[in-house]
Amino acid sequence: MRYASVGFAVLLAGALAPSWSSGAGVVMVTGVYGNVTVQHHGSTAPAKVHQVLQAGDVVATDDTGRAALLLSDGSVVKLQIDTKVQFAAGGLTVLDGEVFAKMQKQHHGPYRISLPHGHASVLGTELDVKVAHASREAETTSTLTVVSGKVGLAGDGAAHASREVQVAAGNQSILVLKAPEHVVSSALLIATPSAPVEVEVDPIVAWNLQVQAYSDAISKLHDQVEVIAADAKAHSGFLSQQLMDELNDSEALIQSLTPDDDFRSGHQDLLLAFQNYKVALTMTANPSLQEQAYGRADAAYRAADLSFRAYMAKNRERITQFTR
After folding, report:
1. Distance separating alpha carbons of residues 47 and 241, to the nearest angstrom
2. Three-state DSSP class for residue 133
3. pLDDT tens, 8-65?
């Protein structure tokens, strides 16, 4: 059987609520890495940083993509690879994949996270939800793991919802929907959450924080390559210094991380890319040396990007192992 997973957990804390709206009904794309698309009114296009999503929009990543989304109340949602979510006023639907999120306290009723066969009611918490579809069986499994706070989990049926189970921090509950052979319509079925059990959530949260730091750094280099080149050739003042400060901050974060053996070379390539882009920013008076620095930086960036893709593909199961 092949399973696709969907999840929610912490990645960013202390996010500032933007001024472009109030409440949790508006969503902005704040980070894009790899292939990420937005489907709007049936038309699909690449996602863009600072793009504001509307109700009904679907955000999807492929096996190379990751995305960061910010709700207008400061809640943060991070999409992992092979993920698809749809947003609505006051809630989102996880269609496939894996999502990590930190939800702010909800003052106007719970934020609803809809699943293929149930829903989670969130009042403000850190949580992880995974949905697995068995391709050869009429079976769907959703696993809710709560990092902090408390979340209600219930299964949805044709006429009513199942009894809601309250899942506290450090606990996990599972919804299973399986259609027996004699059942004509799956719409007649309803999933019931299991009794919560204690699980260890710290390792998966810590690992995803580190992975997100690498993803953000690579994304920053990808987005700023043309900006850095244009600024270094046309200016030598405020904008270059601003870019230098941003590169220094990202480089310092990467230097603080201890990479796994599988990503040690990618870690070094990433630092090399930062170093050479910074060198290029200081060489506006020597175009030849500046071009050489850009070449070294670009080569290092591309090597780090390839290493990160391979690392994520190899460690895909690691993301979901704590829910088994």
Report:
1. 28
2. strand
3. 333 322 223 333 444 455 799 988 888 899 999 999 999 998 899 999 999 999 888 8
